[in-house]
Structure formats: C-alpha cells, structure tokens
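[recover] target loaded
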C-alpha cells in the first residue's frame, strides 16, 4: 500500500465490487481506520448493506453496521478498544446482532475472556467474533489502488456463540 495513503485524510477502499470513503479524523490512529476498513471488507459478502460510522439512534455508535428493515442492527463491528461495560450493554440489548471486534496485532485471549463472560450471561442467537489483524495487514491486503483482498483464512478469528 502506498505510503502517500497514510498522509491523506480521506481514503477510498474497495472490496467485493463496492467502495467506501473512510475519513481519518486528526486524532484518529491510522490503524483504527484500517481496522474499520478490514471489518467492512471481511463481512461485506455476508452483509452487503454495511455502512461505516453512521449513528443508529443508540447511545453507542458502531464503527461498521448493517441495519435490518426496522433499523435494528443485524451486524455491529468495533475497531480497537471496547470497554467491558460497552460489550455487556450491547450483548444484553442486541441478542440477535452479530458482533465483531477487530484488534491490531494483538492476542485475543484477554478479549475473549471479557466477551465470553458477557455473552454467557445473555441468551443469544448470533455469533460474536474477535479478529486480530497482523501488523503488516495494510501491505498484505490492500493494493496501490485501495482494493482490499482479505479473507477469514488470512487472520486469527475467535468465534463465540
């Protein structure tokens, strides 16, 4: 991926025949924007209506989301730090929502413990995924034109039910 991309505030990424413009806020880490882009690209085949950084009328705003016809989240993706309080609140209020948390170059054990505890206290019928993106993900999975080619086989994934 081009080093010039890191200097821009707006990045256009493409995956699965769609494209999204990601706006990097001045205080936002590059890796946070990349994690949102990778969540979008990974889950787009399953959730073709994914949107990035849109308010949904909830206390929390998802990084990546797909809503159903009643404006309830079908999929909710978070990039980076997510507090245990937020996880507990979300799984309790949205038991039918598929959640995913992406971490940058991190072991997933600690997060799996926190999420596992929260999920175990709620009757759910949707998965909760934890993914770890390797440090060289931008170079490995994004080409010079902003095309993202990444699959679940490329990264560590822990799926909790």
């Amino acid at each position: 991926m081009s080093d010039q991309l890191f200097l821009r505030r707006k990045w256009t990424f493409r995956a699965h025949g769609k494209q999204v413009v990601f706006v990097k806020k001045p205080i936002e880490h590059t890796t946070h924007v990349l994690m949102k882009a990778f969540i979008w690209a990974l889950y787009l085949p399953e959730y073709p209506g994914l949107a990035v950084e849109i308010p949904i009328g909830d206390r929390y705003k998802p990084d990546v989301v797909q809503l159903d016809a009643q404006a309830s989240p079908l999929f909710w993706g978070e990039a980076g730090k997510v507090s245990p309080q937020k996880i507990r609140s979300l799984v309790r209020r949205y038991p039918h929502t598929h959640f995913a948390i992406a971490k940058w170059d991190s072991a997933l054990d600690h997060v799996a413990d926190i999420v596992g505890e929260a999920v175990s206290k709620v009757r759910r019928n949707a998965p909760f995924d934890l993914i770890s993106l390797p440090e060289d993900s931008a170079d490995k999975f994004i080409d010079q034109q902003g095309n993202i080619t990444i699959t679940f086989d490329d990264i560590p994934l822990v799926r909790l039910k």
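[recover] notes: The first strand starts at residue 10 and ends at 15.
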